[in-house]
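User: Can you write out an input/output pair for a complex, sequences first and structure second?

Assistant: Here is one pair. Inputs:
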Amino acid sequence: MTSSAPEPEGARPVPPPQRRPGGRSARIRRQVLDAVLAELGEHGYDGLTVDSVAARSGVHRATVYRRWGDVGGLLADVLDAAGDDAWQPPDTGSLEGDLAALNREIQDALVAEPPIVAALIAASFRSEQADHAQRRLWEDRYARCEVIVRRAVERAELPLGTDARRLLIAATAPVYHQLVLLRTPPGPDLPGQAARTAALAASAGAFAVPPPAGDT
Amino acid sequence: MTSSAPEPEGARPVPPPQRRPGGRSARIRRQVLDAVLAELGEHGYDGLTVDSVAARSGVHRATVYRRWGDVGGLLADVLDAAGDDAWQPPDTGSLEGDLAALNREIQDALVAEPPIVAALIAASFRSEQADHAQRRLWEDRYARCEVIVRRAVERAELPLGTDARRLLIAATAPVYHQLVLLRTPPGPDLPGQAARTAALAASAGAFAVPPPAGDT
């Protein structure tokens, strides 16, 4: 969900500039967004300024101001870039297995160090632009995850007419609630327990879509 | 949960000062905390300062600084005061009914205007003191809600050895997740659907506590 969250590229070999897609403009974007992630991981939202990002990225500050405007614009672009990937949800062969693997990815992302995903969620309470971008990213991730439910329907694990989004929210919400809001420590059982709860509820018909009004 | 959240007292008739429990110190605390709530509702965390709270409360600013220190101290005391009440979870006669009523209280609190509960949650991402106090409040509320599960066990709706806290988290997490993080609009079906999902999962044994190791 947030699991394919952005990482600074420092840890990966950087291909020669001329090979990077999109040329100079894309290269500048990558440099700046990597600097945002690094600053955010080290200092959190409160330490993030356009000037510190510009200095770290080696991109002229006038360019950063012109293209991203402010910290909110930088964060929104980090989140939009995070959604521009090929992430697909896990495919383990069972509904409960897929949901548990998904929840493990979410837990890993939420407790990762440096706490970039957590810092981006916190920033969404501060910046309207970051808020909108965070919501776009979540919407996109939940939409991609609907394939988990389609596969379970094809395997006859679930009835046709299961509300995929409600099921996915039920499966993932306890992980977010405990780690982001209640701030309880992560646990090895949390991802699987939340997955099992949602799968059991699904088998019991909790996410059945009622037939359209007028049907007999 | 957050439902018995603090309200400014302006809307209620204020009893004569000499009747208020605790005397002058308690009266000053109430004046100051009411001012925090009013400022928070109007201006959010970013508009909250010790000086604006002091001015609004009519309490000398030196007193406010001495007793509460800073904005974090003020917010923490608002949250601690909110937990110092007689709130009990709804008792409707069924597990699903209790959880649905609880979720309606949570949804109402999260979407209330002025958005005091939402602002306190947002503030918990900014201030460590507010964070700790928010967590204490949630822990206290979830502990009080365990009676919902005990009653369901007594009615034989649930087996003995149901993990009350996990059940309560599963029931309430989708409401928090959608309204606080995903920021989807509130809906009349959300509280009941989340309650029904958790109740169905509970009936299917999702929250059964495994027997202690060594039992046969």
